[in-house]
Design a protein that fits this description.
The complex is a heterodimer of chains A (about 200) and B (about 350). By secondary structure, chain A is of the alpha/beta class. Chain A folds into two domains: about 25-135, Nucleotide-binding domain of ferredoxin-NADP reductase (FNR) module (Rossmann fold, 3-Layer(aba) Sandwich); about 145-200, no CATH class. Chain A has helices spanning about 35-45, 50-55, 70-75, 85-100, 115-125, and strands at about 25-30, 55-60, 80-85, 105-110, 135, 145, 155, 160, 160-165, 170-180, 185-190, 200. A five-stranded parallel β-sheet of chain A has the order 3-2-1-4-5, with helices on both faces. In chain B, a hairpin with a 2-residue loop joins β6 and β7 (about 175-180). In chain B, α11 packs antiparallel against α13. The longest helix of chain B is centred in the first third of the chain and has 18 residues, at about 95-115. The relative contact order of chain B is 0.17. Classes of the chains: A alpha/beta (about 200), B alpha+beta (about 350). The interface between A and B is medium-sized, with 24 and 25 residues. The structure holds protoporphyrin IX containing FE (HEM). Protoporphyrin IX containing FE binds near residues 204 and 207 of chain B.
Chain lengths: ~200, ~350
């Protein structure tokens, strides 16, 4: 499956490329859902697949729409492979792995924007160079959205507008994106005309 | 809410509100010095920067930081905003030194420009700061945070009109890593903190395509300490509400639907931001001050040139700019109201009210 094509957007909206094997003394792969396919493609391009796998730590979670390719990931034979039931459950281990990474560690983030954004945030907080992070989007385009009013984050948003899972306001989904929060911004759609909420459209799948 | 200062209004500073009963208005003297931002009859985004040097006596350009009749009431309003939402002031850990730089810049400037209101005595790092309008008399140790009740940026910007953000320079870009933002035109510091120049400007229409931001950033990276620059920005606000934050949009959004031809002159405000940029000496960060001035339509049209010009600018504005600034729904009503003040005569170049 090819990488996701997003329509042109504003400059805070993240962009993604294709994972390429890079020389390094450790390879940390953080993936969810269809990201497993990008990982397979990455390994297929590796000059020395066995050497790369011998230095690889994979953290994997099923995708938000249920895609679970753990069986395939597990059989790749990386030095360490770990399956978390959800991204939230993965985070404590991710934080530890990232905090112990050193110069020369290559990060490969692939799968949904929620997974990529949260992993990137953890890596950024360590001060490791951006250049060591690659990101490839695969699979679901469901969005992680922060309500600008109550600050609560709603995961896996498909509809626009949607109802904030914390404060209950109807929010429209902007393309404005914060890497620090790892989320898009949601803004009350009927603030000026309370009660006038247009029908929701399924914008993200 | 408890204030940590004891305001002294004297006979210059006004007792007024920017919320609830909205008693804010401009005196005739404040109208005469209002920073009307249009130097011609039309408007488009551009790289509009000029040296921030002392301008006409009495104008908002005269002093480094303009202190006007609204000072004390604006500081009370800021304290209320912060009590309701402390996230309006944030500073990432590496920005403390830039905060000290800003504190020094403001204290030095205001003690020099307004000796009747502010004094600063320095004995090495032992500093004594007096702010008479706010009733503050404070001895502290410069660069020692434990001697201030807040971080240095928060301490000084609770005493300074206008919003401030502090930009760290890294990787050939500017990063908004700190700010005191309580009088913003509908953008969120909490969401934008940590972004770079292109990211926080992402929502602005048209200007990216016109290379405005590429050129502005290139210019700013060369900004030198001691040679600040300034520019104008503007938008529209219903009621004299300084704090038009996205956070509270559900509270103030409905007021946009409250305009009539009868109340528009007093309710609709032109909101002008006089923005200045300063390179800071120790941190090499860039301080950005965003000073908001509110002018009621009925106040502005007392200057015939401004009435004519505002009518033409709003009538002909690019629809994407009207939409972005959030006044598209009221544009026809504003243009209708202002048309009475446009007799079709030519206007003189420049923003001063005279010659017409
Ligand atoms: C480094 C200091 C600066 C900071 C912190 C800053 C910050 C901002 C922010 C937060 C916005 C609102 C974006 C949104 O809608 O979310 C904005 C808008 C804008 N900025 Fe800046 N800015 C800076 C410098 C400049 C400069 C030097 C220019 C010069 C061309 C500029 C031009 C603009 C324009 C044209 C807009 C749209 C304003 C409107 O139509 O209301 N900015 N800026």
């Amino acid at each position: 499956m090819s990488k996701t094509i997003f329509p042109p957007s504003i400059k805070s909206r993240p962009v993604y490329a294709t994972l390429e094997p890079r020389p390094g003394n450790a390879h940390v792969v953080i993936a969810d859902g269809e990201g497993a396919e990008a990982l397979a493609d990455l390994l297929a391009k590796a000059p020395d697949r066995a050497a790369m796998l011998a230095q690889m730590h994979i953290l994997y979670a099923p995708g938000p729409t249920g895609t679970d390719q753990w069986a395939a990931v597990q059989t790749l034979g990386a030095a360490q492979s770990y399956r978390a039931p959800t991204i939230a459950a993965m985070l404590p281990r991710l934080t530890k792995v990232v905090s112990e990474a050193h110069m020369g560690t290559q990060f490969y983030l692939t799968g949904t924007e929620g997974l990529i954004g949260q992993a990137e945030r953890e890596i950024m907080m360590t001060g490791l160079p951006f250049a060591a992070i690659q990101k490839e989007h695969r699979g679901s385009t469901l969005r992680r959205v922060q309500c600008v009013h109550c600050k609560g984050i709603t995961e896996n948003v498909a509809l626009d507008p949607f109802v904030c899972s914390h404060c209950g306001l109807s929010l429209y989904v902007r393309d404005h994106y914060s890497r620090r929060i790892a989320a898009f911004q949601g803004v009350n759609i009927d603030a000026e005309d309370p009660g006038l909420v247009p029908a929701a459209v399924e914008r993200f799948k | 809410m408890s204030l940590d200062f004891k305001p002294e209004l004297g006979d210059f500073f006004k007792d007024e509100t920017f919320r609830d009963d909205f008693t804010f208005k401009n005196s005739p003297a404040a109208i005469a010095r209002f920073p009307f931002p249009f130097d011609r009859d039309d408007y488009m985004y551009s790289v509009n920067m000029e040296p921030h040097i002392s301008g006409r006596p009495g104008s908002v350009f005269e002093k480094t930081f303009d202190v006007d009749e609204h000072y004390v009431s604006e500081m009370i309003d800021r304290a209320k905003v912060l009590a309701e939402d402390p996230l309006r002031c944030q500073s990432l850990p590496h920005m403390t030194l830039a905060g000290w730089d800003l504190l020094e810049l403001i204290m030095d400037s205001n003690a020099r420009d307004y000796p009747q209101w502010f004094s600063l005595h320095k004995n090495g790092n032992q500093w004594h700061w007096i702010n008479r309008p706010l009733g503050i008399d404070h001895k502290f140790t410069f660069l020692d945070e434990s001697t201030l009740p807040y971080g240095p940026m928060e301490y000084i910007t609770r005493q300074t009109q206008g919003d401030f953000s502090l930009q760290d320079e890294r990787d050939g870009n500017l990063w908004m890593d700190a700010g005191m933002i309580t009088t913003q035109a509908d953008w969120s510091l909490d969401f934008d903190v940590g972004m770079n120049f292109m990211e926080w400007h992402a929502p602005v229409p048209l200007a990216h395509e016109k290379q405005v931001f590429d050129r502005a950033l290139k210019f700013l990276l060369k900004l030198q300490n001691g040679s600040p620059v300034r520019r104008f920005n503007w938008t529209m606000t219903v009621n004299p509400l300084l704090d038009t934050a996205p956070e509270t949009y559900p509270k103030w959004g409905p007021t946009k639907a409250s305009l009539t031809q009868d109340n528009l002159g007093s309710k609709q405000h032109l909101r002008v931001e006089l923005q200045a940029l300063f390179r800071l000496p120790r941190s090499n960060a860039i301080a950005f001050s965003i000073r908001a001035y509110l002018g009621k339509f009925e106040e502005l049209v007392t200057m015939p040139k401004w009435g004519r010009r505002l009518h033409r600018v709003l009538r002909d504005i690019h629809p994407d700019i009207a939409a972005y600034k959030g006044f598209a729904r009221n544009q026809p009503a504003m243009v209708e109201w202002l048309a009475k003040y446009d007799d079709g005569k030519p206007t003189s170049p420049g923003w001063w009210p005279t010659p017409e």
